[in-house]
Amino acid sequence: MNRGYDGTSLARIAEAAAVSKSTLFKQFPTKAALFEAIVTESWQRDADDTLARPQTGDLRSGLTSIGHRYADLIGRPGMTALFRIVIAELPRFPELGRMQFQLGKLPYFASVQHYLESEHEAGNADVPDAESAANQFLGMIANFVLWPRMLLTDWDPAPSDTRYAVEQAVQTMLARYSSGPSA
Predict the structure, then answer these.
(1) Is the Cβ–Cβ distance between 58 and 182 less than 8 Å?
(2) Mean local confidence (pLDDT), 97-114
(3) pTM for the full model?
(4) Which of 94, 116, 128, 141 has its Cβ near the most Cβ atoms within 10 Å?
(5) Distance of CA 82 to the CA centre of its chain
């Protein structure tokens, strides 16, 4: 994170990690392979909890659970640094952005979209465009939890403020999409 993608070599990483170069190269033959592993680990740590869809039947509860997990995920200390390095290196290494999106954001986004589709099919929500609804929901949370961190090095909202932001995003989704008594 200190030297950027281009300014970092696998040899330097091996040295900093106190492992032999051959050990690192066996595990990660290229810098791209190592970066892919970092992205995958960042997004899929605790994958059972992070990507698990709540049971259908209670839209408020399901969205609240998803919202808090997403806020926790994108609020992790290393996540902001990962986004910053990807954005900084995009002009020279567009594959980093594709990796971050395809291995990280897309699977998480798909799990939210599928949850909303399930609630729609069960009649608990009127969500004719689950892709758009998932974007709206995750965007409301990211706009408070992640994006200020990208620009403000001292942005560190209190957990109660993050909970409030998630609650407000859930309320907005319920007002727009709920078709049952869970509103």
Answers:
(1) yes
(2) 86
(3) 0.81
(4) 116
(5) 11
